[in-house]
Each structure stands twice: as C-alpha cells, then as structure tokens.
Amino acid sequence: MKKTLFVAVTIMAVASLIISCGPPKKQKIGLSFSDFATERWPRERDEMTKILKDAGYDVLVQEANHDAKLQNDQVKNMVTQGAKVIIAVAEDGDSLATAVDEVAKKRVQVIAYDRLIKSPNIAAYVSFDNVDVGRNQATCPSTTSTSAATRPRASSPSRPRATSSSSAARRRTTTPTSSAPARWKSSSPSSTPATSRS
Fold this sequence. Notes:
The protein has helices spanning about 1-20, 40-55, 70-80, 95-105, 130-140, 165-175; strands at about 30-35, 60-65, 85-90, 110-115, 125. The termini are far apart. Helix 1 (about 1-20) packs across helix 2 (about 40-55) and helix 3 packs parallel to helix 4 (about 95-105). It contains 6 helices and 5 strands; from the N terminus they run αβαβαβαββαα. It is α/β, with parallel strands linked by helices. The radius of gyration is 25 Å and the shape is globular.
C-alpha cells in the first residue's frame, strides 16, 4: 500500500512537470534505475511503466547495473531520444549530478526517486522519511495477524529498540533466579554449567 502511494506521488509529480514542459502531446518519460537486483526496483519499474503508459506517455527504461558512469550516459541518451522528464534512482548521487546539470540546460526535468541526487537542478526529490520508518519498525509488534496499516505508532521516539546486539547484551548481564532452568544461568562460554556444580 505504502509503496503504491509512493509511486503514485511520483507519477503526480511527473504529470505536473510534463504540463509545464509545453503543449499537450505524447511525451517521453525516462526511468533510470541503479539496478534491478534490488527486489523492489523491478516491481516499481513495472508499476510506473503501467501508470505512465495508461496515462498516454511513452516510457524509456534503463538499468545501470550499479555502474555510475553508465547511468550518466543512459540519462543523457534518454534525453537524446526525446525524454522530457526522467525519474532516477541514483547509483551514486554525486556522480549522477553531472548528468542532471547537463540535461537541465536542455530544460529536462529530473526527479530523484528514493535516493537524493546532489544537484540544485533536480526538479523534485521523492522519498520516505527513513528515520520514521525505522522507528516504527522497531516499536511495532511483529505479529503476522496485525497488518501494517493497523499497527500502533510509537508514542515516544525514545522508546528502546530491540536489536540483536542489545538482546545479546541483556543475556550477558541478566542475573538468573534460582528457579531459572540451567541453560539460562550462564551465556558465557567460559562459565561452568550450573548442573555440573557440586
């Protein structure tokens, strides 16, 4: 649901940029992805392509296979093919700024999608609030019966997060009670098991 909303917001940004590009006609939109090995990118490529084609746009898709120089070349090539707006998932935000600055001189709008492109010439930056996402993941109950939409939000940002390292630290520092099973009495490999004490 959230991913679909994220894609929809990006497409609305594209539509507003296209309207500002000139008279209505069939426009080309470029989708530039850093890679398709990351699980979400092929899915979001397909969603964006469908929405844009259904809206009447031609769509050009390129994947850079984690090669920042190749992505720069692909963005420039999409402009040569007539793209007026490019949605880019940057492999390297510093490197892709070079292409963004160059195509901006040709009045091509580039939207940085999920990863910031470090150029003042980007038309928009669409992303999640990753700090808030992490906070909610850390504080929400992890049950399969509760959907993400109905899980409670954290009431305080200072609420402790459960991580494997902190759990390990708690296991090492917890003093067991006499009623605790023998396997809980020591997590230190150098300690003598409680059952072998005499």
